[in-house]
Structure formats: structure tokens, C-alpha cells
Design brief:
Elements: E1 31-36, E2 47-53, E3 61-69, E4 73-74, E5 80-91, E6 97-108, H1 112-121, E7 127-135, E8 138-148, H2 151-155, E9 158-165, E10 183-196, E11 202-212, E12 226-234, E13 236-255, E14 258-277, E15 280-281, E16 285-291, E17 294-297, E18 300-306, E19 310-319, E20 324-325, E21 339-342, H3 352-355, E22 360-366, E23 368-377
Parallel strand pairs: 12-22
Antiparallel strand pairs: 1-2, 2-10, 3-9, 3-11, 4-10, 5-6, 5-10, 6-7, 7-8, 8-9, 11-12, 13-14, 14-15, 14-18, 16-17, 16-19, 19-23, 20-21, 21-22
């Protein structure tokens, strides 16, 4: 943010040296969600979509480091737009109203302001990106820094990280560096065309370290830091099997005034589908099947085609989307919202080599909608 880049962040030189407090979980429980910007092809690839969220009752967020697992490709982006952004924030100066924010993620050249922000955030970026958001007629700029992992981070499988520091929202108005509107970030979703999904099959575990502020104090609570993760299973696919059987019956029909027995040919079509994630069954999947645009069942079933008719059978799977979605501040849209399956703390695997004793609070699997089609021609 233009007027809020001077962040009062007094973080230690390394996270591993911090003494983490387990009690911090009660006041700070963020989530990280990672998915694809478009339905996956068989071999993965394509831009990445990232979402973050915290509860309004959580302590304000001071710093977030998101670690990108090896296998993802991070391009050196030319200046310009990398993707769209939606976000929400609660505004203390507007009576706690929830503000929807929209905008874009841009790659930018470093400026004196972003260089100062990076120093205060404790990061030496290789690239500077910017979340440019608008709300209530104001433009808010939040630098997002791309940085190489340390030796320990690289050894743990994380070559690159994204780092953002946010200004304190709950200090008194007029305090230098206070967030515009007293805005407390609650959620954000953005697409990054510079981060490309792996083409190799596998299970990819993103991780992140979140540090909250001490409420109303404007200083980071390093002891309250938590690790949260997001899983990507590549590829995620729906397979569709369609079989057909000729069915011949005799019916009585009036032909030229006389009742005659006439053969009638129809086609019995049976279908079945399933979703796999890197070859294993999906944690959550809801499948709907249509024929010629009309619903004919769920994951399996049958229908009948008249003689000589054909139809496109389509199985559409909504995968790993049963736990909710990252809030956008816009009307719900299942086709575009970033949904997820929540694994909870039990699905989170600590990364002590990077984060020391930070508690691992949550893990998610990013949701997406995928489909498979097959054209069936009826018997004559």
C-alpha cells in the first residue's frame, strides 16, 4: 500500500530460532489453498491459482511466506499483468464492514518504496510483484516478493518462496504505517501465470509460514507463527467408460389401416466414471453425467437412444470442493470460486528443517471441476 509500506516488522533472522507457542492456534488459524487456473490436462501444466484465508476473529496477519515445491516452474516475469485478484478485508474505519476488493497481480520493477518494504519484511527478492486492489474508490498496492529459498529450504524441497508483509490494522488511527481503512486481510485469491504447474505426475505439498500481530500492539507475534499447507495431486482426472447394446423389440403398429408387428431398434447405453488423483481415488468427488445436454445420472447409470440417434455423453466431476471456498466478496459462483477439501491439522506434515517447532495447523486440497466426454452412435 502506498501509504502503508513502512511496516513495523521486527522478525528474527531465521524462523528456526523462534520459540513457538502452541496456544497461538486458538487465535490464529489461516488456510492456504492451491489449485489450477484451468482444468488439468493429462500431464498437468498451466498457470497456478493460490488462495489464502483467515477468520475475522483471528489476530491480524503480519507476514506470510508461501513455499513453492520443486517441480513447479517460476518464470522471470516481464512487467505486466500476471493474473486477476479478488480479496476481502474487514475495515475498522468503516465500522468493521467487510470490503470486497478486486484487481490484478502485476510484475513490476522495484521502486524505492518496494525496496524499503522488502528490507522491512526481511526478504531479498529476485522479483517484485504487486497486488493492485481497489475498494471504496481507493487503490491499494501490496508488494508480493519472489525470493530464492535458503539452503535449508531448498534442501527441504522448496526452491522459491512468495513473501508478503501487511501493515497493522488495529493500532490507533494516525499511527504511522497503519493499514488504510484499518483494513484487516481476511481472504485473497490470485492467479499467477508465471507459476506453472508440474508436468510430472506426483503429489506436491506447498507449505507456508504465517506470523500474526500482537493484537492492538502493531508488532509481530513471532511465537504465534503457524505452518499451513496445500496439496496438489497431479494429474487429477475423470475417466468415462461407455458401452452400448442393441435392443430389438416387436411392437404393434397400425400400418395402412392394419395392425402389424414391427421391429423397433433402440440402443441401451451404459456409462460409468471415476476420479483419480495421481492414480489414487479422490478424497471428495461429485460426478454428474449428461447425454445431449440432459442429465442422465451420477457416476454410473444408463439411458436409451432411439434408432440411428447419437449423443455426446459428458461426465463432469466437482473434485475436492466439499469444505467451502475462499471468500471473494462477490456473489457465490461455483464455476469460478476457489473451493477446497480441508484435511485439518491431521493432514499437515511439519517441516522442522525449515520452521523449527512451528505447529502445523492445517492442510487443504485445492478443488477443481473437470470433465470427460464420449460420443455414442445408436444402432439403426
Amino acid at each position: 500500500m502506498r501509504s502503508t509500506l513502512r511496516l513495523a516488522l521486527l522478525l528474527g533472522a531465521t524462523v528456526a530460532s523462534l520459540a513457538f507457542a502452541g496456544s497461538a492456534l486458538a487465535a490464529f488459524a489461516p488456510k492456504l489453498v492451491v489449485s489450477s487456473a484451468a482444468p488439468q490436462a493429462a500431464g498437468g501444466g498451466g498457470p497456478t491459482r493460490i488462495g489464502v484465508m483467515v477468520a475475522n476473529t483471528d489476530d491480524p496477519t503480519a507476514r506470510v511466506s508461501i513455499y513453492i515445491p520443486t517441480g513447479y516452474q517460476i518464470a522471470t516475469a516481464a512487467a505486466g499483468k500476471l493474473g486477476d485478484v479478488t480479496a476481502t478485508a474487514s475495515a475498522a474505519d468503516l465500522g468493521g464492514a467487510i470490503m470486497p476488493l478486486t484487481g490484478e497481480l502485476d510484475a513490476i520493477a522495484p521502486t524505492p518504496a518496494t525496496t524499503t518494504a522488502a528490507q522491512q519484511c526481511g526478504v531479498a527478492p529476485s522479483q517484485t510483484w504487486n497486488l493492485q486492489l481497489t475498494a471504496a474508490g481507493q487503490t491499494l498496492n501490496i508488494p508480493l516478493f519472489v525470493a530464492a529459498g535458503t539452503a535449508a529450504e531448498a534442501a527441504a524441497g522448496f526452491q522459491t518462496k512468495l513473501v508478503v508483509c501487511l501493515p497493522p490494522p488495529d493500532v490507533p488511527p494516525g499511527t504511522p504505517g497503519r493499514a488504510t481503512f484499518g483494513a484487516k486481510l481476511l481472504s485473497a485469491t490470485f492467479t499467477a501465470s508465471a507459476i506453472t504447474q508440474p508436468t510430472a505426475t506426483g503429489d506436491y505439498r506447498w507449505t507456508s509460514l504465517w506470523t500474526p500481530y500482537v493484537p492492538a500492539a502493531g508488532r509481530p507475534n513471532a511465537a504465534g507463527s503457524v505452518e499451513v499447507q496445500a496439496l496438489r495431486h497431479i494429474p487429477t482426472q475423470v475417466s468415462l467408460t461407455v458401452t452400448k447394446k442393441k435392443v430389438t423389440t416387436t411392437v404393434r403398429k397400425r400400418v395402412k389401416g392394419k395392425i402389424r408387428r414391427v421391429k423397433q431398434v433402440r440402443t441401451l447405453v451404459r456409462f460409468s466414471s471415476k476420479v483419480t488423483e495421481n492414480g489414487a481415488a479422490a478424497a471428495s468427488a461429485k460426478i454428474t453425467t449428461t447425454a445431449a445436454g440432459k442429465r442422465v445420472g451420477g457416476a454410473s447409470g444408463s439411458f436409451v437412444l432411439a434408432a440411428g440417434k447419437s449423443a455426446t455423453v459428458k461426465a463432469t466431476a466437482v473434485v475436492d470442493s466439499d469444505s467451502g471456498s475462499v471468500a471473494t466478496g462477490q456473489p457465490a459462483n461455483p464455476a469460478s470460486d476457489l473451493s477446497f477439501h480441508d484435511l485439518g491439522a491431521s493432514g499437515c506434515v511439519q517441516t522442522p528443517a525449515v520452521f523449527g517447532g512451528a505447529p502445523c495447523a492445517d492442510a487443504t486440497v485445492g478443488g477443481e471441476t473437470i470433465s470427460a466426454t464420449s460420443v455414442v452412435k445408436g444402432f439403426k
